[in-house]
Amino acid sequence: QGQLVESGGGLVQPGGSLRLSCAASGFTFSSYAMSWYRQAPGKERELVATITNLGPTTTYADSVKGRFTISRDNAANTVYLQMNSLKPEDTAVYYCKPYLARSWRNYWGQGTHVTVSS
Fold it and tell me: Which neighbouring-strand residues pair with 66?
C-alpha cells in the first residue's frame, strides 16, 4: 500500500477560499478513483467529493455542491479540493483516499485541518 499526504488547510474567514492538495506515492495513482472526506469535531466522518480515475466524472455531497471542486493531476499524482465560499460548518479535518478501494478501507492519513472562523 502507498501513502497519501494532505496539505493546504488553515484558518480562513467565512466566505474565503482554500485549496487542499493530496500527494500520492507508492501506488498506481491513475488507476484509482479518489475521494475527499472530512470529520468535524464530535461528528462522524463524511464523504465530501469523488473523482474517477481519469477525472471526467465528479460527485459532491449536497452540503458542498456548487462551492467545492475536486480535480486531479495524474502526472503529478495529486488530487485537489478547491473550496470556495467557506462556511463555519466546513470546519473539519479533511482526508483523501482512493474511493471504494477495499485495500484502502482502513487507511486514513494525517489529514489537514480547516478552520472557518471570523
Answer: none
